[in-house]
Amino acid sequence: MEEREKILDVRDLSISFTTTGGELNAIRGVNLSVYRGETVAIVGESGSGKSVTVKAAMGIMDKNARVNSGEIIFNYYEGEGENRVQRSVDLLKMSKKDIRSTINGRRIAMVFQDPMTSLDPTMNIGDQIMEGMIWHYKTPKQEAYQKALRLLELVGITDAEKRMKNYPHQLSGGMRQRVVIAIALACDPDLLICDEPTTALDVTIQAKILELIKAIQAKMGISVIYITHDLGVVAKVADFVNVMYAGKIVESGTIDEIFYDPRHPYTWGLLSAMPDLDTDDDRLYAIPGSPPNLMHKVPGDAFAPRNIFALKIDYRKEPPMFQISDTHYAATWLLDERAPKVEMPPELRARIARMKKEGEKKNG
Amino acid sequence: MKKYVLKRILISLVTLLVILLVLFLLLQFMPGSPFNDEKLTEAQIALLNAKYGLDKPVIIQFFNYVTSMLQGDLGVSYNISKNTPIVQLLQTRLPTSVRIGGQAVVLGAIIGLVLGVVAALKHNSVIDTLCTVVSVLGASVPSYVFALFLAYTCGFQLGWFPQLFQVNHPYISSVLPSVALSMFTIASIARFTRSEMLEVLDSDYLLLAASKGLSERALIMRHTLRNALIPIITVLAPLIVSLMTGSLVVEKIFAIPGIGSLMVQAIQSNDHSVTIALAFVYSAMYVFIMLIVDILYGIIDPRIRLAKEDSHE
Question: 10 Å Cβ neighbour count for A353?
Answer without folding.
Answer: 11
